[in-house]
Amino acid sequence: MTYKITSLAERPDRARDHSVPFALHAPGRGSLPVSGWDQVLVWAFADLRTGVRPDTVSAIAVTVTPEAQGRGLSALVLAAMRDNARAHGFTEVVSPVRPSAKHLEPRTPVEEYVRRVRPDGLPEDPWMRVHARAGATVERVAPASMTVSASLDQWRRWTGLPFDTSGPVEVPRALAPVHCDVERDHAVYVEPNVWMRHPL
User: Fold this and answer.
1) Domains in the chain, ordered, with CATH?
2) I need a labelling partner for 9 at 20 to 30 A (CA). Which of 19, 52, 83, 186 fits?
3) For residue 64, with 0-12 CB atoms within 10 Å meaning exposed, 13-18 middle and 19 or more buried, which class applies?
4) What is the pLDDT of residues 73-109, one digit of tens each?
5) Rounded to two decimals, what is the model's pTM?
6) Rounded to the nearest 5 degrees, what angle is found at the Cα of 71, between the Cα atoms of 20 and 9?
């Protein structure tokens, strides 16, 4: 059986999603990984290469162009992802959600941030709230969901920041500080996400 790995919303020039099927319940797995996005991609491509039958779909990315944001397209794209998974016989979508407003508080522990809810019981974070409205529930935090490790010159090019002092560096739009090591000419960003489950 073949599985579609990418599904597009009605306006792919403005919004799109990417997802991958993988075997969550394969031996040695069973629970959503603390290394989130990075680990689920490793599992998905290992399963594809070795012919392991997938039982779950994971979101990988949902993108809405800046000029199209604020129009509810993210919810439509998420619905398209769920519909695509259901059409291929899956009963669940999981997502290593990148809390969209966490970058405003990079030093707040992610465990504290994701527990915040509004008076109506929905998550305070806007992107988590879109998932919750679609029926998803929080499963667990993935504290090391995505790791980016590079030389200081690369970080300077990417961010326009000096990276000339060892220690935590706050980078615009990053969910946590980047750890800079001047002596080793290296910096590492470890991004936290939160796993959310969508029953279909």
Assistant:
1) 6-144+192-199 (3.40.630.30)
2) 52
3) buried
4) 899 889 999 999 999 999 999 999 999 999 999 999 9
5) 0.90
6) 30
